[in-house]
Design goal:
The chain has four helices and five strands. Helix 1 links the parallel strand 2 and strand 3. Belongs to the anti-sigma-factor antagonist family. One of its GO terms (molecular function) is anti-sigma factor antagonist activity. This is Anti-sigma factor antagonist.
């Protein structure tokens, strides 16, 4: 359902739409079922093609972060646009889930 690659034991999930109430549950379920439950709990979300994230989407990322941590992993963001960066900063989520300027930086932070 979602495009992903694996680099140095870290999964990179490329999202290509807003992360909102309409799709956040599907994203969460897919990540948990297809990655975390299969032992792939170090995950970078490539946000290059994500125009916006709503509050429901933020909550989904927090939930995924907690699930990944409890499985010995973590999540990070890469390439968030300025609007998404502002939202992460305003909610202080950027203190919990780091955003990196490139996918490689994010992968290196988790490997």
């Amino acid at each position: 359902m979602y495009a992903f690659t694996e680099q140095f034991g870290v999964v990179v999930v490329s999202l290509n739409s807003d992360v909102s109430m309409q799709n956040a549950v599907a994203i969460r379920n897919w990540v948990v079922d297809n990655l975390i439950k299969k032992g792939k709990a170090k995950i970078v979300f490539d946000l290059t093609n994500v125009p916006s994230v709503d509050s429901f989407g933020l909550g989904t990322f927090v939930s995924l972060h907690k699930t990944a941590l409890s499985s010995g992993g973590a999540i990070a963001f890469a390439c968030a646009n300025e609007n998404v960066k502002k939202l992460l900063s305003m909610t202080a989520l950027d203190k919990v889930i780091k955003n990196y300027n490139s996918v490689m930086e994010a992968v290196n932070s988790l490997k």
